[in-house]
Amino acid sequence: MHIDIITCLPRLVESPFNDSIMKRAQKKGLVEVNIIDLRSYATDGHKSVDDYAYGGGAGMVMMIEPIDRCIQDLKSQREYDDIIYMSPDGELFTQSIANQLSLKKNLILLCGHYKGVDERVREHLVTREMSIGDYVLSGGELAAAVISDAVIRLIPGVLSDETSALSDSFQDNLIAPPVYTRPADYKGWKVPDVLLSGHEAKIEQWRLEKATERTQKRRPGMLEKH
Ligand code: ADE
């Protein structure tokens, strides 16, 4: 998979890709992540990527020209499955969308900033808009990192134990059951006996019960989809 992230603040996106699973995925050659500084596509001496809004009002708007030049340049190098604009009013990102995106070959994630992008970018250049939740971030950079993380860990071979992505919460519309590790008794707070029993079928049964109980309590709507 190849992911291009277009941003006017590249440093804000970089670090999550230089650690842990996302770093390992790149090292293994399973994903290529390219962070592109939108300013390198600016057309004036000041490297401007934003301007005042027509009609007035507070806040700057990201200009269409550098974004278009950047996207056309990328499109001349490969064919993209989706060009996704990060926006709080986009489609709500879910595990199911992460699964879908993990099957794609080439993606562009476009990060908005200031008051957002010129509406013509949304009308003519992007294929999809995505929000990571009903709250407003300072820009799309952190959202792009979140989406990349959720997608990259699903690419086969990225996690050493592939089944561990399959047993994640939300993957089968059930929240994951509780997990424990040593010690079995800490200050009198005990690990449930069944987990120490070595009885595989009983442990599986207990995990399913706990997952169902937890889902019922925390995300009752999810159980209908299960
Ligand atoms: N940009 C600002 N807020 C955002 C959000 N919640 N999701 C995606 N992009 C954003």
Walk me through the topology.
Elements: E1 2-7, H1 10-14, H2 20-27, E2 32-37, E3 50-52, E4 60-62, H3 64-75, E5 82-92, H4 95-102, E6 106-111, H5 119-124, E7 128-131, H6 141-152, H7 163-166, E8 185-186, E9 189-190, H8 193-196, H9 200-218, H10 220-225
Parallel strand pairs: 1-2, 1-6, 5-6, 5-7
Antiparallel strand pairs: 3-4, 8-9
The structure holds adenine (ADE).
Please tell me about this protein's structure:
With about 230 residues, the chain is of the alpha/beta class. It has 2 domains: about 1-150, Alpha/beta knot; about 170-225, Trp Operon Repressor, Chain A, CATH 1.10.1270.20. It has 10 helices and 9 strands. The chain has helices spanning about 10-15, 20-25, 65-75, 95-100, 120-125, 140-150, 165, 195, 200-220, 220-225, and strands at about 1-5, 30-35, 50, 60, 80-90, 105-110, 130, 185, 190. Strands 2-1-6-5-7 form a 5-stranded parallel sheet, with helices on both faces. It has a two-stranded antiparallel sheet with strand order 3-4. Strands 8-9 form a two-stranded antiparallel ribbon. Helix 4 packs across helix 6. The radius of gyration is 22 Å and the shape is elongated. The two termini are about 30 Å apart. The mean pLDDT is about 95. The chain binds adenine. Adenine binds next to strand 5. Adenine (ADE) binds near residues 132, 133, 136, 139 and 143.
